[in-house]
């Protein structure tokens, strides 16, 4: 089937009214943090400006001395929708995101990084796409209208190669396979089960599993900005083998019997 026809049909899926989602389900934000005290006030301002209400924001931290904790605690005193949650699933970003999903109920759940790299202005469009039938909505730096500002050259290059090769090799439903800024149906995540143990390969894992099942997935263009304050926890060389596993999993045809780990 020609790619342009596939593209138009995939877009139609994202717009098709859904029978499984309730429009009144409130959004849950899951925000893993690591010493983001300097960035958190600006993140909070962007959330309040750009994210449609109602929503609940779960800020998940690893240790009590994290610089984010006192800043977020003070903010939560006047914001009942802001919740601080200590990581119960093992230190690191995977454990924090697992803990966040344990906290949320049904409906849309948005994973957001606290380093200000994610463009929250597209959240209304993501919610509209979700409520139109997509169970995962993927902001994409590499589709038409998307862009990336800054970041290490090697990391940018490998991310782009992974996304575009999956897109044009097997029809993966997003040009940007590795972006962790994602909107998920929370029930779907529980059904798929998170197996990742390293770090940010989690987004590729969940999207690859959903793709293999034929779950409706859509993408929207986004601009990604490199952090200007704080310390990144991204460890490319340490996590690369884990990315490669889920990259290979996504490459296998949907009808193949290869199981997840």
Note down, in words, how this protein is organized:
This protein is an alpha/beta fold and 261 residues long. It has 9 helices and 9 strands. Strands 3-2-1-4-7-5-8 form a 7-stranded mixed sheet, with helices on both faces. Strands 6-9 form a two-stranded parallel ribbon. Helix 6 runs parallel beside helix 9 and helix 8 packs parallel to helix 9. The longest helix is centred in the middle third of the chain and has 18 residues. The N terminus is likely disordered.
Outline type: globular
Mean of the pLDDT scores?
A: 86
β-strand percent reads 15-25%
Largest sheet: 7 strands, mixed
Structural class: alpha/beta
Low-confidence stretches: 1-21
Summarize the structure.
This protein is an alpha/beta fold. Helices cover 41% and strands 16% of the residues. Strands 3-2-1-4-7-5-8 form a 7-stranded mixed beta sheet, sandwiched between helices. It has a two-stranded parallel ribbon with strand order 6-9.
Task: Pick out its properties.
about 260 residues, 7-stranded mixed beta sheet, two-stranded parallel sheet, alpha/beta
């Amino acid at each position: 089937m020609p790619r342009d026809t596939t593209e138009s049909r995939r877009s139609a899926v994202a717009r098709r009214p859904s029978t499984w989602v309730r429009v009144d389900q409130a959004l849950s934000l899951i925000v893993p943090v690591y010493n983001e005290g300097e960035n958190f006030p600006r993140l909070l301002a962007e959330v309040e400006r750009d994210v449609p209400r109602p929503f609940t924001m779960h800020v998940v931290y690893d240790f009590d001395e994290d610089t984010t904790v006192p800043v977020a605690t003070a903010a939560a005193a006047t914001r009942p929708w802001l919740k601080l949650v200590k990581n119960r699933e093992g230190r690191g970003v995977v454990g924090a995101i697992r803990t966040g999903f344990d906290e949320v109920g049904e409906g849309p759940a948005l994973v957001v990084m606290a380093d200000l790299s994610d463009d929250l202005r597209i959240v209304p469009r993501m919610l509209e796409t979700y409520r139109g039938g997509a169970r995962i909505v993927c902001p994409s730096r590499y589709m038409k209208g998307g862009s990336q500002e800054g970041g290490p050259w090697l990391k940018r290059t490998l991310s782009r190669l992974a996304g575009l090769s999956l897109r044009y090799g097997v029809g993966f439903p997003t040009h940007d396979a590795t972006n962790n800024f994602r909107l998920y149906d929370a029930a779907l995540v529980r059904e798929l089960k998170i197996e990742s143990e390293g770090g940010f390969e989690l987004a590729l894992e969940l999207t690859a599993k959903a793709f293999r099942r034929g779950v409706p997935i859509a993408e929207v263009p986004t601009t990604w900005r490199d952090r200007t304050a704080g310390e990144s926890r991204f460890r490319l060389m340490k996590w690369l083998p884990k990315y490669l596993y889920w990259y290979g999993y996504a490459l296998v045809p949907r009808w193949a019997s290869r199981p997840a780990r």
